[in-house]
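Dear Dr. K.,

Following up on our conversation at the group meeting, I've run the structure prediction for Electron transfer flavoprotein alpha subunit from Sphaerotilus sulfidivorans. I'm pasting the input sequence below exactly as I used it, so you can double-check it against your construct before we proceed with anything downstream. Let me know if the numbering doesn't match what you have in your notebook.
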Amino acid sequence: MIRRVDPRRPALITPQGLRRIVLGGTEGERGLRLAAVSHATAKRPRLALPSERAAGCLLVLVHPDSGSLDEHAREAIAAAALLARPDEAVVVLMPWPQAPVTPGAPDPQAGALDAAALGIDRLELLPVNEALSPEALADAVAARWQTLAPRLTLAPDRGDDGDLGRRLAVRQPLACAAGVVEIADGRVRVRDLGGVGRAAADATAALDGLDLLLLERQVARTELPFTGLGERQMLPAPAPRALPGRVDLGVVAGQAQQVALEEADFILAAGNGVTDVKLFLELAEALGAAVGASRVAVDDGRFARSQQIGATGRTVQARGYLAMGISGAVQHLQGIRECRHVLAVNTDVSAPMVQRAELTVVEDVQALMRELLALLQAERAAPPAASSTPIPSLKAA
Ligand SMILES: Cc1cc2nc3c(=O)[nH]c(=O)nc-3n(C[C@H](O)[C@H](O)[C@H](O)COP(=O)(O)OP(=O)(O)OC[C@H]3O[C@@H](n4cnc5c(N)ncnc54)[C@H](O)[C@@H]3O)c2cc1C
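The predicted structure tokens came back this morning:
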């Protein structure tokens, strides 16, 4: 019999902070049960000596999301911190798009990341720009990996991080477990992809035999009972690599409305309250937003079925979700659970979407769309000098 592991099956967080799947759990046990661990006392660094002098290290590969780290990345770092031995450092290697070019110089934006609180002993920033190919980035990461010789490397199993991890695994080569949903008792359990004839034992492997773990969500809890050292280091910028047989035509901005909703960073979503669809689409284009819709707006023929968001539509994880005239029925909210910032426009302050949103504008949606579009058009028409007024830094304010 093939036993499949459902990453959403009942699980608890062990006192060590790592996720343990509860086999044979009852319905009542569904959801993460957090073990009662008291962190009332002041936290101390886990590592007692500078990271340079540590006996070894665990390496985490993560990409920042506009200068910050999302929950998935934080969980991968926390897992490394929990797995590290007392004399091993947790080193996080992060491609850094806005990095200054001078190696060794502190980056003011990276300073906003509280590395110590995340459990990071040393944050290594790798300056990158858009022209750097994935191959050149993988070269640079592989070179750093060889210098550091980590006992174990971890990365979130998604997008750029999963890609970088897999490239590293192939280059070295590394023994890699992808889709890891649990680390317990010296073994890792991976999301079973359900291949025909695979035995249940195929879904777990000994941690000792692995070099690289690509982690699913919620493998570790991010509240740690200790801190990292929080050291920072800017690495030299990687050299670009010429790729034989390929010509780099540069970066071409895509149209936000053609991006798959699941991958969209910013979504403008319409509900039954949106009656002027033409105006709505103009606004989406001006904002550079992908277009989503509620089921009522789709059933009504105003939007395509592929644009429906919710339990019977797409599940999205945009950084920004602007809900225009959407009530926020439970089926719709299911589809936006993973969205980071939700804003709403609604005339009804008691709508469930208002509870979900961080900010709601209580206004007629058509009127607001007209105003917003006019503002954007005015901004665009303004001479560049007016819009390039420097924004005072928080420090200076
Ligand atoms: C099995 C099942 C599966 C479902 N799956 C989905 C799904 O995947 N996705 C989904 O979205 N729904 C789904 N639904 C439907 C869901 O229950 C709701 O009916 C639907 O989400 C409501 O859409 P709405 O909020 O756009 O419309 P409404 O419920 O009509 O709400 C419109 C909202 O807009 C506001 N409004 C109206 N006019 C204006 C205005 N001029 N200015 C500002 N605000 C205004 C109103 O105050 C209201 O809050 C499903 C239902 C079932 C039973």
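Two things stood out to me. The radius of gyration is 23 Å. Residues 365-381 form the longest helix (17 residues).

Best regards,
J.T.
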